[in-house]
Amino acid sequence: MFTTWANAGLLVVLLADFLVDGAQGSVEKDLSAECRVFLYMGTPPVGLEDHSLRKICQRYNGKPRFVTLYDTMDHVPVYSAYTFKRSDGEKRVDVPWMFEPQLATVSATGEMQAFPRGYGHQNFEDAQAVLEDYDNVVSYERGHLNPDEHQADPDDKAATYTLTNVVPLAREFNIGPWKEHEHIIRHRLNNYCRGTAYVVTGITTSGHMIRRHNIDRVAIPTYMWSAYCCINYDHNAPYEERYKFPAFAYYGLNARENNQVLEISVKKLEEFLKGSTFVDKNFRIFVDDCVPPPSALP
């Protein structure tokens, strides 16, 4: 899934290692407590290790909004992890696309920023995607991992519009089966999740890239996948919905055709990803597979 890192990636890693954990920085070697609230049991997925991967606490307007594991070599998020907010599904459309300054330099602000006008080639382009990477790309468009329709607060919605939260998706897949399933999950969690729903949405890649100026720039996902965990749910929900709690998952092929989305158990998704991408044999999305200890049951 991940490319071999070279000097540029090493520089990013060395710079990021100097960051101070906590509120001072959004690119963190170890996620701070205020950022772990977006993860079930405060624990990120395990079994994903690579020198080019950086943990980003996605901050906007003074607050952390969600967490992303970002590949600075392939210029795509490996996954974004967030807590679902009950939402009517409306989109926020008046937001400029943003980038993560601290992927480039430790002296930058700890919050995502809008792309400056006429920025040309600047150092942040080495470590992350930029708007020009998606220009004149006919077959693909920017697809969210943390979709704004799964958020309610306007600032939470706005924070999803960073290029560190999007990947190239085939338009037919993005506006078709994948978007439809984001709607399905929103309705399900709106109606039957009574507590916090933790969601992790990620990708697999196979080496195909968006190229700009004859340079490989942005990895194209082969599959999109997502899993949620909600331990406090409506036990009186209809069976066809109730058996998909406390956790369930889905995935789909990022293609113009034959791109249906399949719902499966989290365990089956983990087995699928072990066979489809570079993850450790101990790869796990949720601690204890989202099975809470007896003392935590409602």
Automatic annotation (TrEMBL):
Tell me yes or no: is Signal among this UniProt entry's keywords.
yes
The reply on keyword Signal is: yes
Tell me which residues make up the DNA/RNA non-specific endonuclease/pyrophosphatase/phosphodiesterase domain. Answer: 62-279
Per UniProt, the keywords (alphabetical) are: Signal
Q: Which GO terms describe its molecular function?
A: hydrolase activity; metal ion binding; nucleic acid binding
Question: Domain ENPP1-3/EXOG-like endonuclease/phosphodiesterase spans what residues?
Answer: 63-285
| Coiled coil location | none
InterPro entries (UniProt xref): DNA/RNA_non-sp_Endonuclease_sf, Endo_G_ENPP1-like_dom, ENDOD1, ENPP1-3/EXOG-like_nuc-like, His-Me_finger_sf
Q: Where is the signal peptide?
A: 1-25
- Quote any Pfam family the record assigns: Endonuclease_NS
**Domain of life of the organism encoding this protein:** Eukaryota
Kindly provide the name given to this protein in its UniProt entry.
Endonuclease domain-containing 1 protein-like
UniProt organism field: Albula goreensis
Supply the source organism's classification.
Eukaryota, Metazoa, Chordata, Craniata, Vertebrata
